[in-house]
Amino acid sequence: MSQALATIPKVEIKTGNNPQSSKLNELLEASRSLPKRLNDIESIHLCLNEIKNRAHSLRKNNKLDSQSKQDEHTKAHYLLVSKGIALEKIQRELDAIKTANIGSEKKDQLMITSSNISSNKQKDEVYVSAIEHSMASAARDFDSYITKNVSLDWKDRKQELREKLSGILKRDASQQLANIDSKRLTQKENMQRQLTWGNQKPKGLISTNFKFNDVKNENSLDSVVTPNLSLVMRKKFEENAEIIYNMNDAREKKQPFKIASVFAELSKIETSRKFEPLNETWNILKDFCDKDDDSFNGSQVERKFANGYCTENLNSFEATKLRSAIVKKSREYLEDQFSDYVNDLYTKTLTGKQIRDNKIVSNLDKMSNFINLTLKDKNGNLKISNLTFVNGQAIWALMFYLLRGGFYADAIILLKQYKDSFQKLEKSFPVYLKSYCESEEKKLPIELQGRLANEFNQYFKHSNREIDPFRYATYKILGRCDLARKSLPSITLSIEDWIWLHLSLIKEEDESNANAINSVFNERYTLLDFQKTILEFGADAFNASTNNPMYLQTLILTGLFEHAVKYLIEIDEIDAVHLAISLNYYGLLRVTDEVKLNGSCNKLLNVDDKGFTSINFARLIGYYVKNFKFTDPKVAAEYLFLICMVDGLDESFKQDLIEISQSALRELVLETREFVLLLGRIAKDGTREAGLIEKRRKLLYLTDSERYLNKIAERAAQTADEEGKLFDSILLYQLSEEYDIVLNIVNKLLGDTLSSVDFTVAEDVLLDIMIRLETDRQNNIVKLSENLLHVYTSSSSILSKTNTNKIVDCKKLLEIYQLEYEFSKAGQDPSKLHRVLELIKTNDLVPLTTTPEIAYIRNKVNELGNISESIIKNLPNLLVIQMTCIKKLILYYGQAFGNETQIEELRKISKNCMIFAALIKYKMPREIYTCLINLEVNI
């Protein structure tokens, strides 16, 4: 309001020579000195609304006092007349005053001010509204971002806690060498890592957050694999781990290992019904892979089928040979299985007397018993009509089931027993049957196959007569006839029978021979065709019976090994992992090349642009290992070695997998921090004790220790250094025998630690800082430096590989730490302060002399050019310590007479110290210069 009053324009009155005007001017000047009604009110700072309300109140008061103001004006009129003032003349002079339209200007100014106030008020409201809207929008965006991008995997956190608190695991003695506190910290850090921002693709192979996108399983591997879940699961985990350990031993020694046989024996122990198909699966693999057969790379003990299975040329000799072997072995397995079933069925029908007689029964009698039990109903009536009987025997049914059970010798015996009957029925049939049964591959020569095909078309394909269905089936199998229709009318087939029938119709030939056969018969049925049929039917068609699901066995029998792993992982993930390991060991698994898939690694089963399916084996191993990498790092390493089963692959892909395995092992080392167990240790005499990875380096295709150090230990150290894990990188560089790099990191870390201490704080605070620096159990760089220095100086072999200057720097830094620690304990004790000055003099970095020799000081300054950065950065603290000690000693000596000499010497030392501080080229913080100047002033 005072500012508003100050803006009123000053009135100018023309005086001229008129005495009335002079009186009026005097009156005007006197009126200005009168006290104002509001002059006792100080300047106010009110908001716009408050000013508006008060102005409205003032206007209301003015209206109420208008009558009293008129009375005051009347009194003034009489007063002026009594003094002899002519009011008419004064009125004329007032009218002549040049007000320059003051009224209108004031009115315009008030209107502008009012307009500005209104405009500013609207602007303020707009600003406030915009700010509130922006804050609300920011809050919504933040909530949305948190909901979208922050994920807490509580299942993993719970699992980490279970792993940390479990007491049932007993680690090997070698695993106890690592520091317990560091492992606790690691577990805590691992739990904190579960908080992840965004859905970033996991870089590490053993990343805890990785999941397969194409695997649907309610029971995740986290709850199944973790060995702390139950004693039963722990036992199974240990048994599987022992098998893998033994297999790696055999691989390292280049010895064969029958892993399918081992798992087949192990699966027998499982009593649950769900493990019956798995046991059969292992038995199928055992019969195919572990039989003594030198036809497939007899000298090769690992991945012996890889050349035929992993090739992209499906028509190559090796590929055709392997598919033929799969068909043959699978057919024989089903025949043996059926034979066992017939024997069991016969045994159940024996009477007590027959059991006691223990009479040897022929396969013909057993098969006749099977036919009577299966082809007749309870009343003894045949389920199938049109059967051909000779002497009461359904000879075609008997012949068919003898072939089904693999009783080829008995089929020839049956042929001889009913020779006359067969001659009457089919004159050429004995020739066909004998040739088929005596053939190793169970196939007819081209000539006989042509003749049989003609007879088949004549008797069956174009005949309207009702025929014996088993006769039709026998001819169809012997000659592989009518492949367009692969069913057997009127005969009820089980899933095993159906698979056996298709395998019997398959004929794998090399390209030239196949073309010759196709030109004659225009028909071809291969294993690849059968595989397409299996996949089209899917799991539901083969798992119709819950008591006997057959899909897993079917996939293995037909060579669909990748699909078998994918199917099994949704049932039992542990067994799926070990099935994949076994298949890969034999070379019966295509491994995904992530480079060809442009890094798309989130699927277990992948299909490349050529249509080949593959299993992401490396990711599968990492997926399994992630759950026990902290509790059992030794076992985790054994599994990661398996990624390097790469024989039979092209060279570039082979090198990629080797690098993936080595990278995963480095990741395991850094995450678990089990350096001693996995990488070994450096003894006090300088010798290196090998860890698990170095002992198994041959499995990683690392032929010597030098390559191992370069590929594993040193690169792991580089990764730790890049991630800021300096203490881990020190240990890893130590294990890789890079002693100079170790000293560089130690000196830098020690120098940074010492230079970060503020020596201008209170004495009790400084002492607490130095004590914590000395007693830190986790990251005690001082103790680490002392231990390394002791080891290096005690070993001649290490000294020969180390730069002496770096050892000198480390000693110098430890001396600086010692004098700083002594200073923190000195307090006001003169003897301790003198001790600190003696240590500074011994350290010989800062001049401590009473003689003012500029040349000497300049020489000390020049010597700093040859000193490492880690030491130079501690000069400011040394200068502050020296000046502080001098100040305290001068105060002490100043308390008594007769100490003038000591005080003078101390002042000379402080003067030289300040000269040195001014001459050094190292740029110290401004606070240090201020502190030194204040200390000098007090001195």
Calculate the mean pLDDT score and round it. 79
Helix content: 55-70%
User: How much strand content do the residues show?
Assistant: under 5%
Runs in which pLDDT lies below 50 for 5 or more consecutive residues are 1-16, 38-42, 150-154, 164-202
Q: Give Rg in angstroms.
A: 50 Å
Strand order in the largest sheet = 1-2
Main sheet specs: 2 strands, antiparallel
Q: What oligomeric state do these chains adopt?
A: single chain
* Number of E strands: 8
Structural class: mainly alpha
Count up the helices.
47
Distance between the termini: 58 Å
Number of domains: 5
Shape label: elongated
Index terms:
939 residues; mainly alpha; 5 domains; two-stranded antiparallel ribbon; elongated
Provide structural commentary.
Helices cover 64% and strands 2% of the residues. The chain is an all-alpha fold. It has 5 domains: 2-100, no CATH class; 116-152; 156-314 and 549-671, no CATH class; 357-509, no CATH class; 738-938, no CATH class. Strands 1-2 form a two-stranded antiparallel ribbon. Helix 14 (317-349) crosses helix 16 (363-374), helix 30 packs antiparallel against helix 31 and helix 36 (726-735) packs antiparallel against helix 37 (739-755). The chain is elongated.
Topology:
Layout (H helix, E strand, L loop, with lengths): L1 H5 L12 H14 L15 H17 L1 H17 L4 H9 L6 H48 E3 L1 H12 L14 H13 L2 E3 L23 H5 L5 H22 L6 H10 L7 H14 L16 H4 L7 H33 L2 H6 L5 H12 L14 E2 L2 E2 H10 L3 H10 L1 H7 L3 H10 L7 H16 L7 H11 L15 H11 L5 H11 L5 H11 L1 H4 L8 H7 L3 H9 L3 H14 L18 E3 L5 E3 L1 H9 L7 H8 L10 H22 L2 H5 E3 L5 E3 L1 H4 L9 H18 L3 H10 L3 H17 L7 H13 L5 H14 L1 H4 L4 H23 L3 H14 L10 H10 L5 H4 L2 H19 L6 H20 L6 H13 L1
Antiparallel strand pairs: 1-2, 3-4, 5-6, 7-8
Helix pairs in contact: 7-8, 10-11, 11-12, 12-27, 14-16, 14-23, 16-17, 17-18, 17-22, 18-20, 21-22, 27-28, 28-29, 29-30, 30-31, 31-32, 32-35, 35-36, 36-37, 37-39, 37-41, 38-41, 39-41, 41-42, 42-45, 43-46, 45-46, 45-47, 46-47
